[in-house]
Amino acid sequence: MATIYMVRHGKARVGDGLDPGLDDLGREQARATAAALSGKGPLPILSSPFARARQTSEPLADLWDRKVTIEPRVAEIPFPTTDLAERSRWLSQAMAGTWLDLGPDLLAWRDALVECVSSQRQDCVIFCHFIAINVAVGAATSDDRVVISQPDNGSVTSFENGNGALRLLQLGREAKTRIN
Questions:
Q1: Strand 156-162 to strand 2-8: parallel, antiparallel, or no bridges (unpaired)?
Q2: β-pairing, 45-47 with 165-170?
Q3: How far apart are CA 46 and CA 72, in angstroms?
Q4: Which of 108, 111, 116, 153 has the most other CB atoms within 10 Å of its CB?
């Protein structure tokens, strides 16, 4: 059985384009997450390719003297537009529904993320995003809603992987936050 720790990235800079890095609070959240996970490893570390997730992984990677493996399958949900205002409206609507409402392309993205997480055969830490964590929670609990939990920035949600079947061990700290 592998334990998988999925970490939501720290707070990102607002209004900083499509791939914002962390703000000061986000960097503090990254350090706090590293401290909280320090006794679990060193373990393999995977990260979404987005700056906010990579930057959140850095304190733990430094602490454990590990390289971070970039894993595109745990990236942010693909958006149908690059316009930030349109993206925000689309995301609000998508988050209120189910995966079946979102169509085959997003179902394929969801399935690839689930395959990535459920293929981990050793304990690891995955730095990712709000929706990505919800995808794993949905897979572990057989829930098709896009949003099931409200993972806070820097929170850790843990799963057990037994032969490709995910089991939710513990939801991370929750809070109403801005979704980047």
A1: antiparallel
A2: unpaired
A3: 10
A4: 153
- DSSP secondary structure, 29-48, as one string: HHHHHHHHHGGG-S--EEE-
Over residues 123-159, the pLDDT tens digits come to 999 999 999 999 999 999 999 999 999 999 999 999 9
Task: Compute the residue count for the chain.
Answer: 180
Distance CA 114, CA 110 (A): 6
Scan for tokens 């032969």, then name that residue: 163
In terms of pTM, does the model score above 0.90? yes
Contact 119, 140 (CB under 8 A): no
Peptide bond into 59 cis (omega under 30): no
Amino acid at site 130: F
Report the b/e string of 19-28 with b at 16+ CB within 10 A: ebbbbeebbe
Asked if residue 133 lies in contact with residue 8, where contact means CB atoms within 8 angstroms, the answer is yes
Between the two ends of the chain, the Cα-to-Cα distance in Å is 33
The structure tokens 């690059």 sit at 82
Report mean pLDDT in 10-residue bins for the chain, 180 residues. Answer: 96 85 97 98 97 98 98 94 85 93 95 97 97 97 96 97 92 81
Report strand pairing: 68-70 vs 2-8: unpaired
